[in-house]
Amino acid sequence: MNKYAYQASLEDVTCHTLRHTFAKNLVDAGTPLDQVATLLGHESLDTTKVYTRSSAEELVSGVHPRFDTTR
Questions:
Q1: In terms of residue numbers, what domain contains 60?
Q2: What is the rounded average pLDDT of the residues 5-15?
Q3: Residue 4 Rama label (left phi>0; alpha psi -120 to 50; beta)
Q4: CA–CA distance, 58 with 6 (Å, rounded to integer)
Q5: What are the distances in angstroms from CA 33 to CA 20, 26, 28, 54, 68?
């Protein structure tokens, strides 16, 4: 992981951050939560619901990508 993160000029990248980013991007793109749960291997939707929370950056900007009409 470190090798590829270095090659991509990325810092603080872990398998966990990639997995979280993958899930968050799916949720932000409107993928149904049950499908995200299946892709992540979650047995409970409660575990997957973590990815539906807005990030601090999105809250500060005031625009969640799901509601951005400029896209």
A1: 2-67
A2: 86
A3: alpha
A4: 27
A5: 14, 9, 10, 15, 20
Within 10 Å of residue 30's Cβ, how many Cβ atoms?
8
pLDDT (0 to 100) of residue 61:
65
**Domain count within the chain:** 1
Residue 35 has pLDDT above 90, yes or no: yes
Q: Is 22 exposed, middle or buried (0-12, 13-18, 19+ CB in 10 A)?
A: middle
Mean pLDDT score, 20-49: 90
Q: What CA–CA distance (Å, rounded) separates 61 from 47? A: 26
- Which of 50, 71, 69, 68 minimizes the C-alpha distance to 58? 68
